[in-house]
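Here is one chain, start to finish.
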Amino acid sequence: MSEKRNNQITNIVKELNALKKETTVQDMIYAIDVNIEFFKVARSILSYCKWLLSRARKLDSNKLLEINELLPKYDEEVHRKLIEIERKKFPGLIEPLVSYIFNFITMADNDVIICSLGAGGMEVERQVIERLHKTDYQHNILFIGFDISDSARNTARNNLKTLNFMEITVVDLDSHATDFVPKLNQLRLKNKFTVVLCKENIFSLDKVMPPKSFDLIYSCLFYHHLIRSQGELLESICSKISRTSIEYDGYKSMLHVIPQTLESWSCPVFMNATIFSNLRFPTKAELKHKSNKIQFFKVGTYLLCNKY
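Its structure:
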């Protein structure tokens, strides 16, 4: 194990122990303890594999939190690494979603407004815009990314800078401003591709946006962060403010843990986020019970589209 990796794990364990002393909430203590346990076994591949086989399946998925949720200082590192993975043609982690959105836009054959919930680093938008640009798309597209995390929006801003052609504009707007919606309409007319970054509690979006404001609203690898009641509330909000919604997330599969571990071993923070996400994912059976319209993909993801 590299000295840098070892030092990071040591620091994280210290920070988690300090965080544990600041709370008396039992669910939080459980989440912290499980993270401490994870990082301790992640010092060696042998102890980590033993943990996966004997312990991981027994964890309470409803109480799990990823390291960047407990310690936000690691949020940007997680997002940067996720973007790196999402850009790889193999395994094509977000390819099903990118293709769906691209086809949705081109088939509409008119200006489109698209909203992303928990937008993160906005790699999906970057790939969609890049693909549209190569086809000489003629209409104007407005992408609005809502994310409460400052580090996520900063990562998105830097990620979108890699699109250096003139047809794209990236701006920040205050979604609480009284002129928010008029500003969106103005931006929509100015450039072929416009991305708006907003800090907003997504559970109050129906108070901010008029009915059917969006042609498409989607989330990417986000729903597993929500408890059941939050997911149901968000689905209700989506049905009010959008014409179509897409839920794109992962399904639980211990087989996918092997490539996930190999890909992320050098970055323990990202490995934690990846493996804990997998443990929090619903099973295929649970998803099939939720809807018979779900599409499953070999990369360990599913796509659920709802039209309202």
